[in-house]
Amino acid sequence: MSIVPRFAGVLAALLLAHPVGAQGGAQPSVQSTSARILAIAGKRFRDLNRNGTLEPYEDWRLPSAKRAKDLVGRMTTDEKVGAAVHGTAPIGGGPIASGPAYDSAAATAMILTRNVNSILTRMSIPPAAFAEQSNALQRIAERGRLGIPVTISSDPRSHFQNVAGASVATSGFSQWPEALGFGALNDPALVKRFANIVRGEYRAVGIHMALSPQADLATEPRWSRINGTFGERPDRVGALVRAYVEGMQGSSTHLTRDGVATIVKHWVGYGASVDGYDGHNYYGRFARFPGGNFQSHVTPFLGAFAAGVVGVMPTYAILDGLTIDGKPVEPVGVGFNKQVLTDQLRGRYKFSGLVVSDWAITQDCSAACMTGVPRQAPFQIAMPWGVETLTKEQRFAKGMNAGIDQFGGVDDGQPLASAINAGLLKPTRLDEAVERIMKVKFDLGLFENPYVDPSAAAQLASSTTTRREASEAQARALVVLENSRGTMMLPRAGAKLFVRGIDTSVVRARGYQPVTNASDADVAVLRIKAPYQTLHPTFFFGSFQHEGDLDFKDADTTLAMVRATAAKVPTIVVINLDRPAIVTALVPLAKTLIGEFGASDDALFDALTGRVRPVGRLPFELPRSMDAVRAQQPDVPHDSRSPLYPVGYRWPK
Prior knowledge:
By secondary structure, this protein is an alpha/beta fold. Helix 3 packs across helix 13 (414-421), helix 5 (127-142) packs antiparallel against helix 15 (454-461) and helix 12 (392-402) packs across helix 13 (414-421). The chain starts with a strand and ends in a 22-residue tail after the last helix.
């Protein structure tokens, strides 16, 4: 055996270029910045604990499970509880900033002092800079006692929506339709292709874990999280979820070395939220199943399980009044519910992977958190539904005993240590959880090479072929609801267009002349948003989530604009359907009516000019009236009376 100086070759782009399986196979890419490299029998290994000896956890020839067990046996309690929480990377610009760099001092304290090695990133900067920032986190981690690399996770960032706590702005990578757009296309092969591309983009910048997809069913049309779902048909959603997992993890059965660990969410029943109010909020903490349709909400998750999904994230919601196998379900959030996590998820459905809680379920919910008075601030975000009166230590213990392996939105695991000291949690249960967490890191090859190549990240992100493919998917996912203008909805180039919600530079680039007065136009094209209400403005999430009624009120300014325009010129209306909308008032006004699920102006014009044929079908029904919405059951898909447009609709009928 000999000790080789620090390797200074190519960074982890080699991991993507040579995604070999280890465990006795060919030499994987090995990269260090502070730990030494051991050379043994012509093989290279990282000496992560710096003792000059190859330990089992450092030996890539061994199975991941064996390496994880060895590593956990070497960890202190403080190191274990740090691994059992999933923090949020501190960004120098502040808690809601997206860049330009991580706060090095705060990150060092999180990783080296509190031993946190799973971190959510909300960074949104160009890919090369992103890769450099990921490497900076890994350099900090490599200095730790055992050299445990950081798993960097992300909410969805490959679409159009950018909502705090749910998604991240796209920056430099391909931009695709929302999940609903893929639901409209109902093409598992395309979803798998999309996920494969995103997998490469994520790994290029140093992201290893996707906190997605949503396998939730959009059964309550007022729910504010519908935009992240694939729709409301259980079997179709399940097929698309499975394709997503296969593409993201790199295999139809398991996570590959060059894959992205996928966390399917939110187990289970989140879409049956009462009145559509979201579980991030105290007033939205209940999901109910008066239609007796709970099992349909389980169905989409089965596709993820079949694909070997790495992890599951439980819903915030209390499954209010639900009975499973003849037993009433405890009225606590699913992250604290042993019946739903252990008896059902692990017992009935044989899931053996990682269970990661949604963010902030162990935090204290203050008066502002419960009532919105005074106005709820970001530091008051908490979702401990059903266990509000427990101490933090009791919440951590109850959650882990229920089946949670890792707690999201937490950067200090000491309450777990306190729970063990108080006899609320067995050390063996913590060991089991940390072994699952570490196994994922070994499966991903992070103990050999956690670094990435910034130049390769920049090159991958600049792929014009991928961008063109994504744009075509946006155009194809459009759902034509009404059209009296024929296949080509716009006149030939040179016509005068009156537009709203569209960049006029795109209009000019397509050979049309934008005009400022609708009376001077040949055609109008109006991009509008679906109706919503802000019913809880003093709650943090309630202040920006789309809640309430789905119809255009008579005094609605958007409806007034459409009416005024349609009175002067033939009008095309394109409505962004982040939730189902009641478009009854639009139908007599629009010569062409289109539902949109994430599309650029260029993609829209590709469809309007006939360059790309829009073939999407509604992934959910569009109800006829609010009376019909109020009469439907929150847990039952497409059950409103006489919908204006049924699920699966596309013009012509």
